[in-house]
Amino acid sequence: MKTVASLALLMFAAVSAFARDYSFAVKVVGHGKPVILIPGLTCTGDVWDGTVAKLKDKYECHILTLPGFGKQPPIDGPYLSHVRDDIIAYVKDKKLDHPMVIGHSLGGFMVFYLGVAEPKLFGKMVSVDGLPFLAVIFNPKATAESMKPMAEMIAKQMTSSKPEAFQASIKSNLVQEITEPKNVDAMDAFCKDSNPADVAEAMKEMLVTDLRGEVSKIQSPILLIAAGQWAKTDAQKKSLNEIYSSQIQTIPNAKLEVAWTARHFVMLDDPAFFYKAVEDFLGS
Fold it and tell me: 217, 119 in Cβ contact below 8 A?
C-alpha cells in the first residue's frame, strides 16, 4: 500500500512539473500555422474577434487576455516582463513552431519585447500602433529616465481614483481612440472591469521602457501598422512617418504601413485596410 501511495505521489509530482499556470487566459480558434494575438491596455481578447474570423480558416489563432484586463485575475510585481516571459513559456510548452504574433498598442509593444528577448523563437510579427518606445509620441526628446516622474504620476492617479472614475477614464480613452460609437460601447463592455493596479503598472512600465537600442536583435520580419487619422497636413504626415520609421529602422526586416483614415484601434476603424495588410504580410 505504501508503495502504491508513493508511486501516486511521484506521478502527481511529474504531472505538476509539466503543468504551468499562465498569467493570461488563452482561447484557441482555427487551424493551420499558429498566430498569437495580444490585445492592448485594458482590452480583452474579444478585440480580435473580426481578425480571428478572417484568419481562422488558415491559421490557428491563440487569443490572449492579459492579467488584470477585463475579468482576468491580476498579478503582482513587474507586469510587462512577467507577461513576456509567460508568453515565451507558453510557446515552448505548447511546442508552437515559430508562431506569428499580432499585437495592438501594449500588445504591439510586446511584439518588440518578445522579438528582442527570443530572436529565433517567433515567425512574422505585426505591431498595430505599438512602438518600441511609446513616450516619443508625447515628447520626441523623451528618454526612459525623463519619463519616470510622469509615469509615476499617471499610475498614482489611476490607482487612487474611485472605481467609477477609473471606468469613466477608460470610456473617455476609447472615445478618443475609436471612431464609431457602437465600437466604443462594445470595447467598453469588455474593458471596464479591468484592474486599476495592473493597468497602472503596465502603463507606467511601458512609458519608461525604451527598446530602440535593442530592436536590432529581432530576426523576425516585422510589420508596423500606424494609425494616421490625426495627421491632416502634409507636414503632419511627414512627421508621423518619421516618428514611426525611426523606431524600426535598425530592425533587419521591417516595414511600415499607415492607415490614414484610422484612429488607434486600426482593426476596428479601417478593417478592410487592416485585414489586407495583415493577410498579405503573413501570407507573403
Answer: yes
pLDDT tens-digit readout, 252-264: 999 999 999 999 9
CA angle at 127 for the pair 196 and 207, rounded to the nearest 5°: 40
Which ranges of the chain does DSSP label H, i.e. alpha helix? Answer: 2-18, 49-55, 80-93, 106-117, 148-160, 163-177, 181-191, 196-207, 234-248, 266-269, 271-283
Strands 33-38 and 100-104: parallel
Task: Please give the order of strands across the beta sheet that includes 25-30.
Answer: 25-30, 59-65, 33-38, 100-104, 125-128, 222-227, 254-259
Give the pLDDT confidence score for residue 20 in this predicted structure: 67
Q: Could you write out the DSSP letters of every residue in 102-164? A: EEETHHHHHHHHHHHH-TTT---EEEES--S-GGGGT-TT--TTTTHHHHHHHHHHHHHS-HH
Q: Stretch 204-212: mean pLDDT, rounded?
A: 97
235 exposure class (CB count in 10 Å sphere: 0-12, 13-18, 19+): exposed
| C-beta separation of 226 from 245 below 8 A | no
